[in-house]
Amino acid sequence: MIVAKFGGTSVENARAMENVIGIVTREKARQPLVVVSAIAGATNDLQQCAFRALEGKLDDSVSILNNLLDRHVTIAENVIDNRPSYPQVIQFCRRRIEELRNLCQGIAILGELTNRSLDAITSVGERMSSMILCEGMKQRGIPAELIDARSLMLTDDRYTSATPLFDRIEERSKEVVSPLLKSGKIPVTQGYIGSTVKGITTTLGRGGSDYSAAILGAALDAEEIQIWTDVDGVLTADPRIASKARKLRIISFREASELAYFGAKVLHPSTILPAIGKNIPVVVLNSKRPDSTGTRIVAHPPKSNVPVKSIASKKGITVINIQSTRMLMAHGFLESIFAVFNRYKTSVDLVSTSEVAVSLTIDNPEKIDEIVAELKRFSEVAIYERKAIVCIVGDQMHSTAGIADRIFRALGDINVMMISQGASEINMSLVIEEERVLDAVRRLHAEFFEPVPEVELFDAVGAN
Ligand code: ADP
Ligand code: ASP
Ligand code: MG
């Protein structure tokens, strides 16, 4: 079997859904499990509707919900036209929106929005899109069957970023999905959403549908995990930043992980992990151009002679500088620092140490005040906000001389606050001012990919 995941833009309107149905029809013989996101923008809208309710602006919430309902009705009208499916689907969407109106009213009255409520609210996006897509498939003769992801994707109760319970998911997937596949059905389920063992709705965090697809693929020993999106594959940079970005034919799990972790939105950062565990290729494909070959992400791609394969960037980074004359050189200093971050469940991205200081970066400043207060008990702390990480990735970087020189020459007058290289051997990460990030990515892209290296690795976007 394979897993075919379709992102928000792949189901954003009736035409997009028709493309998806065409792709699934074509892949039918490979026994696809279809995983679908909410329609483009729906999760943002749902979050906004909750936040407006919390501010007491119930009218705004209701108007967001009405718009969202209209968008779904329009798609459903164009994708499904037979009875009794169409009225059932419309009724399903109306009921969900009605429930959300009531929930928002509760939030406005109480003036309280918990992460648990937020998950209940945002989960509706995937529940509606999957219902429409599944009925659209049935109508075109595809033996589709909708599975509520909450019966498969069991998680802990860390609402808004729940952790999947892999063993339970594997068990449930084999019980629920495998028999359907065996009987020739095409199961359709939602990405992003899950449930605690007690049946409370959770989500895996924004962009989490990719992760859902990979988890289910690993649970079912898929032959391939397909991520269908709105670009040709993994590119040499975000095409919204570097207009001449090229598509990569193949990259390694490690390269893809680093890119995703350091900001390449095309893959959720956790996507690759389940695939590595079972050595399942992940293929990133463009649902608007179903015949294009996409990017294959595998354990060991053939060696290529290009040192740099892609550039990612991530804004909203906070740098923390820690100095301690008392503790420095004393063993246990780093341990005491990391213990603080661990206590506040805040992960550290880059670390750099010198004789007198330790610098590190975090991308989630939620607990920064508490962290700084604790660090100050044994050191001096300085905080620098609104920084960005630029990450240059390629598995031959470490064995190619002169790369750092090219990077720094290309950056020119862009000041680098922190550098990290070596740990993974396949990337170099730099911390710069947030406002210079577009410039930095463009300059580095021009240095390494314009003109494009003549190796059989890069394709022009839209080429095949
Ligand atoms: P989906 O809704 O299908 O999950 P996303 O918007 O989450 O799609 O991810 C696709 C987007 O990721 C692209 O439109 C592109 O702008 C962005 N992106 C960032 N970095 C890269 C990269 N290196 N390669 C391809 N796309 C990238
Ligand atoms: N719909 C969710 C989001 O927008 C999950 C996803 O699309 O991957 O974050
Ligand atoms: Mg995505």
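Residues 131 and 308 are 42 Å apart (CA to CA).
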